[in-house]
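Quick start: read one record
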Amino acid sequence: MTRARLFVAFTVVAMAAAAAAHAQDWPQRPVRIVVPFAAGSSPDILARIVNDKLAARIGQPLIVENKPGAGGNSGTDAVSKAQPDGYTFLLSVNAPLVYNTILYKNLPYDPFKDLMPVSLAATTPNVCAVSNSMGVDSVKGWLAAMKKNPGKFNFASTGNGSISHLGVELIKAKTQSFAVHIPYASSGQAVTAIVQGDVQYACLPPVTVMPQAKAGRIKALAVTSAERSALLPELPTLRESGLPDIQAVPWFAYMAPKGTPNDVVQRMSREIAATLKDPDTVKRLQTAYFDPVGSTPDGLSKFMDEELRRWKPVIERAGLKPD
């Protein structure tokens, strides 16, 4: 019995040592970060800011690979089916990682089963902005124009089921207004559509909205967060503007294919969290209107479960569906 116990103890120690050595040896070649949206989108910008310091920490280049399509589903699905060797990671957002499990009956992947949480990277408040052609300068004026002209306006989003889509659908439901949804491959394309007058409004990440708003090409009206953002203190919340039940905040998370070695996932999570505390990285992220977070894999798992519980009844009650 004593020999058996000693053997088991030795085996456990040996396995732990091997895992630690694996984590230290990884990576031996460049690591791919798949962003399931177009270049210039919010997750793409976030990935490229974080990559600068994260690559130095892990000792290998980090290559951003944009795989847009189907509102983020295509790239997310590709990672769920990628080789789980520690050389492919995903930086995705709310919809492909949580909301689409409610919205789509035949999603080709299950983010809760086919992917492994790595780290919650950041959040940012969406900004509701309107075309100058609408001639409004407040949420009250915007909502009044929508109710007065049912069916006249189009609104942009970053894809079916995205938080920019669901947030506006909730606004429409609460105000009993109507507008046609026009999805785009990225927030940059969606904002350009507002500037050009192809759509009249949208609630999109500030990293793409605010440069156009500051240039006077569109009008920023409010943020979709529960409280005013320290990054955009001049903008009221939708709650302050008379819509108390609207809260729709984009978040960004790193994931890995199911089966990726746990020691690699844990190390990647630690390195991401450390990078997100780096003063230069924090400054660059905040300049782009991101609030850096950094979490453990378990923390991200619990967060995703909470998001599912919070949004499932909201989506079902509002009858929201992908177009």
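The longest strand covers residues 115-123.
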